[in-house]
Write a structure and sequence with these properties.
4-stranded mixed sheet; 7 strands; alpha+beta; 3-stranded antiparallel sheet; Arc Repressor Mutant, subunit A; about 15% strand; single chain
Length: about 150
């Protein structure tokens, strides 16, 4: 199973190996991060428009195809991690952000906070969707700290 670290520097763990910032494509890390933040399969068009907003839709989709190919190559033999259909794309993975939410839901704020190794998606500051996700996570971290202090 693929595990994506979103808290701190983006990294992928497969089996017992951790690899930083995959894949080697200009928007590859952003694609990996977005797919890991949004479980399930998604229509290609909106993702392409989100990651390549200044391009014509056909050009953005071509860039997305290239980035998906690079992601699949970077993850290697992890069968089925990248869900790549004709009109959809997705990533089957677990994340430290999901584990954070599970610990909070279970009333374990100390365990949740222990997962926070840094800013959500550190280094991917150019995207508005990253800034919005980061602001939401910061609110959740503050609530977990308050719960820990309360008791």
């Amino acid at each position: 199973m693929v595990h994506v670290r979103l808290l701190g520097e983006l990294a992928v763990q497969t089996d017992a190996r951790i690899a930083p910032l995959l894949p080697a494509h200009p928007q590859g890390p952003s694609l990996l991060a977005w797919l890991a933040l949004h479980p399930g399969e998604h229509e290609r068009g909106p993702i392409a428009a989100l990651l390549w907003p200044g391009l014509q839709p056909s050009d953005a989709r071509a860039h997305l195809r290239s980035a998906v190919w690079a992601l699949r190559r970077a993850l290697g033999p992890q069968e089925g991690a990248v869900v790549d259909g004709r009109t959809t794309v997705g990533l089957r993975c677990t994340t430290d952000l999901q584990a954070f939410a599970e610990h909070v839901a279970a009333g374990q704020p100390a365990a949740a906070l222990a997962l926070c190794r840094g800013t959500l998606l550190a280094g991917l500051d150019e995207h508005e969707w990253v800034r919005a996700a980061r602001a939401e996570h910061d609110r959740r971290v503050a609530a977990a700290r308050a719960a820990l202090e309360a008791g």
